[in-house]
Amino acid sequence: MSALNNVAVQWGIRRIFDYSGWIGTFVGGAALFYAGLTPSQQAMISGLLQGNWQDITLGSLIPFLVLIYSQIISYRATVKPQAIVEENGKLVTNTLSPAKETEVSKTVQNVSSRKSLIEILLGK
What we know:
The chain is mainly alpha-helical. It has helices at 7-14, 16-35, 39-50, 58-79, 98-112, 117-122, and strands at 83-85, 91-93. It is flat, with a radius of gyration of 26 Å.
């Protein structure tokens, strides 16, 4: 029972659900990604994991590298700060004009005033 009284062990026990969720998400995502590959790409990955580097063909390696590259580009586009284009076509990054800022603050007030969606759309 003295092991359960250890602060580090108690911390680990409290984190079981958090870390198991992360691990489950990663393993499940990797399994779904693997299931979505073509049979030749699956054979290539199996060969890599088994250490059979000599069995990898360019026909399976090149499409796999293209797939990985497309996922990296997609991730970068997702986390990249978005630019705002105003009516006059001017490109503004991370700032709003005073008129737009007022409009945004009014919208936030409407949403936070606990009005229903129909009331907001009807202008009540």
